[in-house]
Amino acid sequence: MEASRDLEQLLRDMTPVVAAPAYVFCSFADRRLPAGVDAVCLFNEAEGLTAILDQADADRLGIAYDFTARMITLTVHSDLAAVGFLAVISTKLAQARIACNVVSAFYHDHLFVPAERVDDAMTILRALSAPSGAADA
């Protein structure tokens, strides 16, 4: 699978897919992830360890969290050096007043949007990836 930097191709082929669980953002000041927790993403910040967890796991373990989101994976293999791809997407989502927290992993970009706005976000992404939508970006 070869990564792409071509903006038009990335938009056309992004194929957004919503993951089943809801995810939550948690912070651990002691930088320790509790036993039994499988994070989808970890990031060390000055204030502590940020973890993105399955909401069901956080609830089961009594872990405090903020921002309940759904994860949309853009299944196109975007190059980490691609320019403008996420800017176009975040601009379109911002125009609809949809918050978006992005994690760019090695193969794909993952958008964490408010759970209650996931359908709206998917509508925007599908329109953006349609032939006329990608040309308008």
UniProtKB/TrEMBL annotation:
User: Which InterPro entries does UniProt cross-reference here?
Assistant: ACT-like_dom_sf, DUF2241
The segment(s) forming the DUF2241 domain are 5-70
List where this protein forms a coiled coil: none
Q: What is this protein called?
A: DUF2241 domain-containing protein
State the organism of origin. Paraburkholderia bryophila
Species classification:
Bacteria, Pseudomonadati, Pseudomonadota, Betaproteobacteria, Burkholderiales
